[in-house]
Amino acid sequence: MSEARFSQTLLSFDAPPLPGDVPARLPSPFESGPPVRLACLAAEALQQRLRREHARWEELWRPGGGKMFGVLVVAGPEGRLGYLCAFSGMLGGSWDVEGFVPPVFDPVARAAFWPEGEAELAELGRRHAELTEQCARLAQEPRGRKAELRELEARRSEVAHERAERSRALWRQLSQGFAVPNARGEQRSMAALFAPRPPPGGAGDCAAPKLLSCAYRHGFKPLALAEFWWGAEPLGGGRRSGAYYPACDNKCGTVLPFMLEGLAVDPAPAPPVTSRDEDVLRVLHEDAALLVVDKPHGLPSVPGRHSPTRDSVLVRLLPRFPDLSAARFVHELESEVSGLQVIARDTATQSALQRQLARGEAEHRHVAWVEGLVAVEQGRIDVPLRGTTSGALETLANPNHGKQAVTEWRVTERSESRTRVLLWPRTRHAMQLRIHAAHPLGLGLPLVGDARFGVEDSRLMLHAEGLDFTHPGTGKRLCFQARASF
């Protein structure tokens, strides 16, 4: 960014802040509740600007079109106070908008390979959609064409696999060249921050990482941060225009702890400590090859690369099983989800269990309550997902450019306003069950307690209650049950 452009991006307050408005330490981006007054002043100024430019950003008010915005109050070397503005992802189809900080990644480096890669993915998506249509037509034909149908389905699977591999390679290429700075002047690639797992889609594209990156690049000291939603609510609800929200845990929970190293920052809020039985991590099975645990809701699977002591399944197990690592989790459960997890203790066991899950030889059954009444008794949801958890509900699924995602379900109980269902994820994507439940092409009803796509409740009522697999070492079939508390 040129100095002239930066001078337009660093905005001044209408009135000088009072001395007591400047916090001694940067408040934690993960703290819920209203930001400090200084950040609120900057956020309100940005909101006034967005109101004045309503016609320009009319897309934000279309169904599901809202997004997160952020402000960062900074101090220059001479003590001058100002603030920077950012948006999450893209705005108006652009990464670079006047008056807002640029993305963290290098747009020139990205442009050298990304458009060609996206074009390849689009062509593979078109071929997959075409084969899907052909399969659907052929399925209506007489039985004599079953061999031809199997051949078409095999070709469709090959195209889906090719597209998934190309998508992973493209994102890997981007994340490896995605330099993330911190206050000490150090840099890490996005790939290194999330290693050994691949970064989730959109990592580093939230408002907070953009703001901190810009501040560091120009030698400004971060003082106060605020992020708020602006525009129409997500299709599943859970966000109000003008309301403040803490940084997300899925992506920023890994990116921000590194970016904040070297700054005086208030500690992130600790999870509530309780001794209730429902908050206890139970080990149901242990041997030299693997563990099976029953995870309580509210507990993350792993602590995050830059918060290694954060309360999590891994941190609780390490004193007893020091050989464990985050890389050995065969499947992670979101912190809001409770239930059964299997953890490998060596690479061979991990690979074998992942193959069983991919081939449908292992089964992971979930139980959930959804808001509303499901009319039919059972079904199959085949709605491809984009591989990201950011964005509106309608954009998280994409029949042409998403990766195959399949969930089977069956109703077990109905109340006056809710339905209890069993869910079998046949593929594994972040938030797959939550998206498939809420999306109009799925159940069309959000899970009870899903604050992202529905309405907040005492908890997310999603629990992994059954886990069946063949032990890679003994060949014995193991079956585990963990009853839900709801």
How would you describe this protein?
With 486 residues, this protein is α+β, with helices and mostly antiparallel strands. The protein has helices at 3-9, 37-52, 107-111, 114-139, 146-176, 190-194, 207-217, 252-259, 313-317, 347-359, 393-396, 432-438; strands at residues 67-75, 81-87, 179-181, 187-189, 221-230, 282-286, 290-295, 338-344, 363-371, 378-382, 406-414, 418-425, 462-470, 477-481. Strand 6 (282-286) and strand 7 (290-295) form a beta hairpin. The longest helix has 31 residues, at 146-176. The chain is globular. The termini are far apart. The model is unreliable at 1-8 (pLDDT under 50).
Features:
486 residues; 9-stranded mixed β-sheet; 3-stranded antiparallel β-sheet; 28% helix; 20% strand
- Report, as a whole number of angstroms, the end-to-end distance: 53 Å
Q: Using the CA coordinates, give the radius of gyration.
A: 24 Å
* Main beta-sheet annotation: 9 strands, mixed
Summed up, the helix count is: 12
Structural class category: alpha+beta
Low-pLDDT stretches: 1-8
What portion of residues belong to β-strands?
15-25%
How many runs of DSSP E, i.e. beta strands? 14
What is the arithmetic mean of pLDDT?
Answer: 85
- What is the N-to-C order of secondary-structure elements (H for helix, E for strand)? HHEEHHHEEHHEHEEHEHEEHEEHEE
Rough outline: globular
* Estimated helix fraction: 25-40%
